[in-house]
Amino acid sequence: MAFKPSLRRHHKEVSTELNLNPMLDMMTVLIPLLLANAQFARIGEIELNLPPAASGVAQGAAALPKEEQRTLDLVVSITDQGIYISSALSAPEASPNRKPTITIRAGGDYDYQALSQQLYEIKKKAGNNFADPESIVIQAEPKIRYQILVSAMDAARSIRLGEKTVSLFPNVSLSAGVI
After folding, report:
1. Sign of torsion, CA 99 100 106 107?
2. Which of 9, 57, 138, 155 is disulfide-compatible with 116, CB 3.0–4.6 A?
3. What pTM value is reported for the model?
4. What is the CATH number of domain 70-174?
5. DSSP state, 80?
6. How far is CA 173 from CA 30, 148, 162, in A?
């Protein structure tokens, strides 16, 4: 008698191959979705020129500023009392009881039109006599809302005079805070 294997002990081999179809389907959906979202994220960008970080290594003498180049050093400080403006044209008073250049309105809102107007007057006085005629530094107290900071940046970049828009200080830099 010949050996006949039992039909009950017959096992099918299980496939050990990885099925990649579901993963490829997910990638087909995710890649266009991520690309579309990346385009929307670029729309909300705000261009800033942050000041360079100071390094501990001394730079060469060529990196030192020349004495004959005057800078405007225009600074707008936003506090809970109002907006302070200082520059090389108008040095701020050293007294602790100094009042803001632009006070807060009765409703508690900041007057961005008055800020643009003050910066326009400074721009006219400065002309091209300074090395940085289009630069401004904006600093704010930590408790100032972000929207107030963005609105001040917009007011510093341009002003609308009648039918035309005049560029004021398009190179906006942010400072760490009000001293």
Report:
1. negative
2. 155
3. 0.61
4. 3.30.420
5. S
6. 37, 15, 28
